[in-house]
Amino acid sequence: MKKSLLGFILVLSALSCVEDEKTSTTFPLEIDREIKTTKTLENPLVDLTNVETQVFDLGLVTDSLLKGKDGTLIYFERDRFEVDATTPLTLELEEYYQFKDLVTHQLSTETVDGKLLSSSGVIYLEVTDGTQEISLKENATLPVTFPDHRIHNNDIYYGARNEEGIMQWKKDTSLVDTTVLNYQYSRMYGVDQYMSIKVPRDSLDYYLEMNESFNVYDIADNKNSNSTSNYQPIIDPAKINLQQLDWINVDRVVAPDGFKDVLLANEKLADYFTIYVLYEDLDSFITYPYYEAKDEISLAQLLIKGKTQLLLVQLTADQEIYSQQITLGERNRYLIGMKKTSLEALNTFLDGISARDSSENPAVER
Hints:
Blueprint: H1 2-15, E1 21-22, E2 25-28, E3 52-59, E4 63-67, E5 73-77, E6 89-96, H2 99-104, E7 116-128, E8 142-145, E9 155-161, E10 167-171, E11 175-181, H3 183-189, E12 194-200, H4 204-213, E13 239-242, E14 246-254, E15 258-265, E16 273-279, E17 285-290, E18 296-304, E19 308-315, E20 321-327, E21 333-335, E22 339-341, H5 343-352
Parallel strand pairs: 1-4, 15-21
Antiparallel strand pairs: 2-3, 3-6, 4-5, 5-8, 6-7, 7-14, 8-13, 9-10, 9-14, 11-12, 15-18, 16-17, 16-19, 19-20, 20-22
């Protein structure tokens, strides 16, 4: 039985191989895909981002392994897309694995129903024929592996900006394939037997850990055996089958400490500025754009978690930067008093709150 399973795994591994690995050409981030709203509010921090648009020239290839410069693996297969065999394709990838890049590109970490997320990274994916975006076929998926085990204890969310330009995320609730050990059968007959099942994405870690903990030869009637279970998941748990392209977020829901109504007194009638709500020791933030010169700004039922700060940033018509930092305390009312600053100073501030980036991120298990 074990030899049959091993052969099955090898066959599936061979079928999952791709022809070659392609590298990308990088370009500056596409500014024209910045926040688009009924009014124009220029992103004041976009020049601080280190993200580039990586373009993979796929041509007419049927399948290929695409690797992003920060480690994202994309298993491209042409027949997954709504396109004929004679249309050259390109794939664009952007990797936002540094928290500062999420902030500077205003990729807020809040769900469509108002829950706070802690992100382990965001990617943007787009397949085009040079003139228009090419969609996945109905019921087709795109396999992707995220670097550094970022998917561990996290879920996949798909994002889109609302009419105000604020990014909001919706959870991927699709089922994923995995294999589980039939523990009762193994205990009864002393032979490993596996079953292929579909489980919710947020339950996959539980099933994998449960399987890995099983050692059928350690049960009472086989205590003296030196053999161990050869469990291997047939479906790589790190390979996620994306249901759609564009904005994809790897993150988890964070329970807030509470909610707070915050009132900002705008005595100098500042307008066209952005408020960033930042949470200490979390890769979490929320943005609010303000166009009107209102004398009072109300942030109703603001999510509070640990040390919560407001960062106000304004880019004037003369391209001057003004900012203000407010640490929320017991008070409910605060005075807006932005002062002239520089991108360098804001960059230093954002670096200081981005200590959990990349390899230092405690959410990433190695």
